[in-house]
Amino acid sequence: MITKTFARAALLTAAALSLAACEANKEGVGTLAGAALGAWAGSAIDNDGSGGVIAVAAGTIIGGLIGNQIGKGLDKADRLEAERAQYETLERRRSGERGTWYNPDTGHSGWTEAKPAYKNDKDQYCREFTQTVEIGGKKETAYGTACRQPDGAWKIVK
Fold this sequence. Notes:
Layout lengths: L3 H19 L3 H20 L6 H22 L2 H17 L5 E5 L6 E6 L3 E2 L5 E11 L2 E11 L5 E3 L2
Antiparallel strand pairs: 1-2, 2-4, 3-4, 4-5, 5-6
Helix pairs in contact: 1-2, 1-3, 2-3
């Protein structure tokens, strides 16, 4: 049985996909990614299924706005540098030590800082992290958790 929360989240996601399809650029991709992550975060807030529609909608909108702003400013080279710094930090840096990146062509920069590694219930090594991106003097910060996969890659799980 499909719940109202799930149905509405699917509708919001479809609307976000439609908007992103109209814009084949980094703003559209950022909006879509942010909206999807925001919807997921909003649905995670509603543990008992009683009022998740509002949380999902708010998460979708807020996530879309933030993702749009980040996507507007980051180009492919920026994203590759940010991903490299994130991987290096999760894989090799001590807790509290920042992995940084800077793109001299755009002037954009950022850093990732991870907390101590721990084993989850699936016997994977995981680390919580903070990631900050600076675009045109404006900083955006995100928090997450990544777990090391059997192939050595780090997958963001929340």
